[in-house]
Amino acid sequence: MIEICFVCTGNTCRSVMAERIAKKMAKERKLKDIKFSSCGVNAKKENISDNSKKVLKELGYDSRDRKSVKLKKLKSSVIYIAMNSILKKYLGKKCISCQELCEDVPDPYGQSEDVYKMTAKLIEQNVEVLLNKIENMRGEK
Questions:
Q1: Is 78 part of a structural domain of the chain?
Q2: For residue 51, how many other CB atoms are within 10 A of its CB?
Q3: Which residues lie closer than 8 Å to 138 by C-beta, 6 or more apart?
Q4: What's the pLDDT score for residue 141?
Q5: 99-127, pLDDT tens digit by residue?
Q6: Among 4, 6, 52, 121, which residue's CB has the most CB atoms within a 10 Å radius?
Q7: Residue 43 sits in a domain of what CATH number?
Q8: Cα(44)–Cα(69) distance, rounded to whole angstroms?
Q9: Which secondary-structure segment (H or E) carries 36?
Q10: How far apart are CA 42 and CA 55, in angstroms?
Q11: How far is CA 47 from CA 21, 69, 100, 118, 132, in A?
Q12: How many domains does the chain have?
């Protein structure tokens, strides 16, 4: 079992979108032994943002509400993916950044639905690269 946790600031936009996008994309590829989660370094048990829910629903992903989860301690058994390089510096060597996969994912918090849609598309690209790497390492592609 591979455990992957996406990390952003508040866990109301980018990381929760990445978790849900990754779950669906992995399921479509029949990758059943990967567990995805998400959290935020400054999460305060807030709901997923309205624009995140709208965009996830529009693109066919899980758009249910949920409270944000605060990152408490890095676990050695989990692969952490920071949504940008700044968060990677904060988290240290135990994680990789989206920039190392494809491209950093800027925070869309408080911006328009169009910005959230661009964010989701960028997350899809990063997840695609991540899943390709996993399949290539396993010799599945």
A1: yes
A2: 23
A3: none
A4: 59
A5: 999 999 999 999 999 999 999 999 999 99
A6: 6
A7: 3.40.50.2300
A8: 7
A9: strand 34-40
A10: 23
A11: 18, 10, 29, 21, 31
A12: 1
